[in-house]
């Protein structure tokens, strides 16, 4: 049984290391959007290249994150975590030195592989190292400090872009890794799951990532209308069908189909797809709208979104406790509707927008909606399956959120009629943004309807999440293993 205490020197080092490692991936997910206009201007990139700058990372991360957790359980959580940190830092260095959009996109895909190794490993190390009596507190501290990192991310990204330059958004990960790796090797105990057995579902992971990549490519390149795009779309659908077939016929599938026998689990993941598709489109386009149309600097754009994250940090734990009393259907219905209202309020943000009158009301409404929604969403996912499968359920939900986000970033510019050079014209981008926000709001309304119709109160003895504080608005927190 793990016996490390938080009050011990080793416990503090473990917590510091896992927070530092996970913060690398978390910061990247929040700062890159702020840097996109500057990256586009500096590298002469099209809107499609900016979409890929976001999505190349998400494709490999979403496709491989479940496999990354399994590798840690089998070969050692510290080993895979350290490998992920080193891989992520090396890919970040390549991102920071990239001379062309193509090399940047390839490096971002490599970053996603590193993220898939270190993201599940950071929390798994806490679960495997701390004494059961301290585990909930350790996870809460990990989640809380991670939330602070998420809050600092847009501000830090804006400062780096306006100061040293956008390349430091990526290069910053290198010194963080140089600090993280030696501490992990010295102070974090190795652990693995002796029950882990069978073959890894590498084929399932590859097919899942390939389907996401092909479909994303088809959506981003669809305005060209070429035969190659159509063939890519067909290949993406074929890869998705093959993925489903493989998962149904493997003895140890990465995504066990029988977990969806729970109606509650299926319903909550459908809500997740709707919510995080809307969030992905919102955060991608809003960072551009504030800079391209409203004339904000990168630092101002990053700072403008801070109130949403601050509300998440301050009130998400209370929201989770309230949802325990009322049941999940109410917050999972009301939360998306509040976020949809926020996206419609964003329509007021145009050229020379006033922050207090135009931007802040929408940002605050978004924060209230996310406070209402995110913690109950995670709790309901974990409560909808057997305790032994809580880690798998959380991983699936996390992958679903990331996949929904990347598809939204690929599809929304197409649906809104954004041309390849739209972000270079304030008028063109503003018009497309005004078409995109109602689409995002509509997707959230669909999510609210699914929650109201299908989500029910969990059993009284259901498991509650140890991650009670949420600061990352781009994906739900991972939770692995059980309390004991």
Automatic annotation (TrEMBL):
Domain Major facilitator superfamily (MFS) profile per the UniProt entry, residue ranges: 14-459
Localisation per UniProt entry: Cell membrane
Gene Ontology, cellular component aspect: plasma membrane
CDD domains: MFS_MMR_MDR_like (cd17321)
Main location: membrane
Assigned keywords, A-Z: Antibiotic resistance, Cell membrane, Membrane, Transmembrane, Transmembrane helix, Transport
Gene Ontology MF: a single term: transmembrane transporter activity
Bilayer disposition of the protein: Multi-pass membrane protein
GO BP terms in the entry: response to antibiotic
This protein's record includes keyword Nucleotide-binding: no
Residue ranges crossing the lipid bilayer per the database entry: 12-36, 48-68, 80-99, 105-126, 138-160, 166-188, 200-220, 226-246, 267-285, 297-317, 329-347, 359-383, 395-416, 436-455
Protein name per Swiss-Prot or TrEMBL: EmrB/QacA subfamily drug resistance transporter
Organism: Streptomyces griseochromogenes
């Amino acid at each position: 049984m793990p016996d490390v205490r938080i009050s011990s020197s080793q416990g503090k080092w473990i917590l510091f290391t896992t927070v530092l490692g996970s913060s690398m991936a978390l910061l990247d997910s929040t700062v890159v959007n702020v840097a996109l206009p500057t990256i586009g201007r500096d590298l002469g990139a099209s809107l499609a290249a900016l979409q890929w700058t976001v999505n190349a990372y998400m494709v490999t991360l979403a496709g491989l994150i479940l496999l990354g957790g399994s590798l840690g359980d089998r070969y050692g959580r510290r080993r895979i975590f350290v490998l992920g940190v080193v891989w992520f830092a090396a890919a970040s260095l390549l991102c920071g030195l990239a001379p062309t959009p193509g090399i940047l996109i390839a490096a971002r895909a490599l970053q996603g592989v590193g993220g898939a190794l270190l993201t599940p490993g950071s929390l798994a190390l806490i679960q495997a190292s701390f004494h059961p009596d301290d585990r909930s507190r350790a996870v809460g501290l990990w989640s809380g400090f991670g939330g602070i990192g998420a809050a600092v991310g847009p501000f830090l990204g804006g400062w780096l872009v306006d100061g040293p330059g956008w390349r430091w958004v990526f290069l910053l990960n290198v010194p963080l890794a140089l600090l993280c790796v030696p501490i992990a090797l010295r102070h974090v105990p190795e652990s693995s799951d002796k029950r882990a057995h069978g073959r890894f579902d590498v084929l399932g992971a590859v097919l899942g990532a390939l389907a996401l990549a092909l479909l994303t490519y088809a959506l981003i390149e669809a305005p060209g209308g070429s035969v190659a795009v159509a063939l890519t779309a067909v290949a993406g659908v074929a890869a998705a069908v093959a993925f489903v077939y493989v998962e149904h016929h493997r003895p140890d599938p990465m995504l066990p189909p029988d977990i969806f026998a729970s109606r509650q689990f299926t319903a909550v993941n459908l809500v997740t797809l709707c919510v995080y598709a809307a969030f992905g489109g919102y955060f991608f386009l809003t960072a551009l709208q504030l800079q391209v149309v409203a004339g904000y600097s990168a630092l101002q754009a990053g700072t403008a979104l801070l109130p949403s994250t601050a509300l998440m940090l301050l009130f998400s734990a209370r929201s989770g406790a309230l949802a325990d009393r009322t049941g999940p259907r109410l917050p999972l219905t009301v939360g998306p509707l509040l976020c949809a209202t926020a996206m419609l309020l964003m329509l007021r943000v145009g050229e020379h927008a006033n922050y207090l009158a135009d931007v802040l009301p929408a940002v605050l409404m978004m924060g209230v909606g996310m406070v209402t929604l995110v913690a109950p969403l995670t709790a309901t996912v974990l409560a909808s399956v057997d305790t032994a499968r809580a880690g798998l359920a959380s991983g699936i939900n996390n992958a679903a959120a990331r996949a929904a986000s990347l598809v939204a970033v690929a599809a929304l510019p197409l649906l809104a009629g954004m041309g390849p050079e739209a972000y270079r014209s304030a008028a063109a981008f503003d018009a497309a943004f005004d078409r995109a926000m109602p689409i995002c709001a509509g997707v959230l309304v669909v999510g609210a309807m699914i929650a109201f119709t299908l989500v029910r109160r969990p059993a009284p003895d259901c498991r509650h999440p140890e991650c009670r504080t949420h600061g990352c608005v781009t994906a739900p927190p991972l939770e692995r293993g059980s309390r004991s």
